[in-house]
Write a structure and sequence with these properties.
By secondary structure, the protein is of the alpha+beta class. Helices cover 18% and strands 18% of the residues. The protein is built from two helices and four strands. The chain has helices at 20-24, 38-49, and strands at 5-8, 59-61, 65-69, 75-79. The protein has a four-stranded antiparallel sheet. Strand 3 (65-69) and strand 4 (75-79) form a beta hairpin. The protein is globular and about 35 Å long.
Length: 95
């Protein structure tokens, strides 16, 4: 099962047919939403799209996933969770 990836072009600024969010989908070819972790998703976005992310317009929700806004106004919504954020000791937990 692949992760749920949804591109939102409603706030895209330049009238482009292909947005940065459309391209960012290809950073997640084998992502499984049942095992996707929001911090791992964010790490991929930071690695692949560092210069294009609008960090102040992006959000992470523990139960829903990541909404990454890009500099062109497009948004990529990625279904993921953070089930280990209970202080269990993973590298993302801050216990």
């Amino acid at each position: 099962m692949s992760a749920r990836l949804v591109v939102d072009r409603s706030a895209e600024l330049f009238g482009s047919v292909v947005t940065i969010a459309d391209l960012a989908v290809y950073s997640f070819p084998a992502l499984d939403s049942r095992g996707a972790h929001i911090y791992e998703v964010w790490d991929v976005l930071e690695r692949d799209w560092h210069g294009e992310l609008d960090r102040s317009g992006s959000t992470m929700e523990y139960a829903l996933g990541v909404s990454a806004r890009f500099r062109d106004g497009s948004i990529l919504h990625i279904g993921a969770s953070a089930d280990c954020c209970d202080g269990s000791g993973c590298r993302h937990c801050h216990a």
